[in-house]
Amino acid sequence: MLLTLPALTVLIRPITPEDKPLLSAGLRMLSPETAMRRFLSPKVSFSAAELRYLTEVDQVDHVALVAVDALHGGLVAVARSVRVSEDTAELAIVVGDPWQRMGLGRRMIELLAERANVDKFSGTMLATNRGAVKLLRGFGTHVDRDVIEGGVREIVVQLPSRAMAGAPMV
Ligand SMILES: CC(C)(COP(=O)(O)OP(=O)(O)OC[C@H]1O[C@@H](n2cnc3c(N)ncnc32)[C@H](O)[C@@H]1OP(=O)(O)O)[C@@H](O)C(=O)NCCC(=O)NCCS
Questions:
Q1: Which residue's CA is the nearest one to ligand 1's atom 5?
Q2: How far is the CA of 114 from the centre of ligand 1 (A)?
Q3: What is the Cα–Cα distance from 18 to 73, expressed in whole angstroms?
Q4: For residue 89, what are the CA distances in angstroms to 38, 74, 127, 129, 142?
Q5: Where does the pLDDT of residue 81 fall: very low under 50, low under 70, confident under 90, or very high at 90 and above?
Q6: Going by DSSP bridges, is the β-strand pair 142-149/8-14 parallel, antiparallel, or unpaired?
Q7: pLDDT at 162
């Protein structure tokens, strides 16, 4: 699907195994702060095994979407949900620094929730990460868990109804 942000139109689509170079280039473009918030540790490159894990996904229990610049093809955002139990998937998302706070993160987790076929998203983030806390808590219809331990915050929220599950991405 195409989404128009201020000054940018992005194409949001499922990730593919061919996206390995795109992911590596995207990581190099992130500020150290954004990379730290996403990976909870300093991250400057992916190993071959990490790239396989991140791009060779089944789109059933591991759903991953990329947002790319519709004009130039550069990576703008990545969002994924990985099932961790029957009803819960772990959410991980990053929006490139220039495009944060434009509504893209919210739109990407809406699309993930439609496809993940779970009732809850869990998220693990730095306790200081106000954007991620607001995004996840704001998306859930109910907060099941919200705990801070050792500087890390874990939040579990109930998702809006599964009525759209399996909707085609048009
Ligand atoms: C967290 C992140 C994914 C949010 O994506 P985004 O596209 O900037 O978020 P949105 O524009 O959709 O905003 C969603 C909500 O969060 C709020 N928000 C976003 N960034 C914020 C920030 N830095 N401080 C406070 N609130 C913030 C927005 O105001 C919005 O709130 P609203 O619904 O009340 O208007 C993005 O900032 C990011 O990639 N951060 C680095 C990686 C990361 O933290 N990942 C999450 C841990 S896995």
A1: 105
A2: 19
A3: 13
A4: 16, 27, 20, 20, 15
A5: very high
A6: unpaired
A7: 64
CA 76 to centroid of ligand 1, rounded, Å: 14
From the CA of 129, give the closest atom in ligand 1: 44
d(CA 18, CA 15): 8
Mutate to test the pocket of ligand 1, among 102, 106, 112 (most ligand atoms within 8 A of CB): 106
Per domain, the residue ranges of the chain are: 2-164
Ligand 1 pocket by C-beta < 6 Å: which residues?
Answer: 34, 37-38, 92-95, 100-106, 125, 129-132, 134-135, 138
Chain centroid to CA 95: how far? 8
Q: For residue 170, name the pLDDT band (cuts at 50, 70, 90).
A: very low
Q: Which CATH architecture has domain 2-164?
A: 3-Layer(aba) Sandwich (3.40)
Q: For residue 132, report the distance from its CA to the centre of ligand 1, in Å.
A: 5
pLDDT(39) > 70:
yes
- Under 8 Å between Cβ of 125 and 132: yes
CA distance 126 to 108: 20
Average pLDDT over residues 126-139: 97
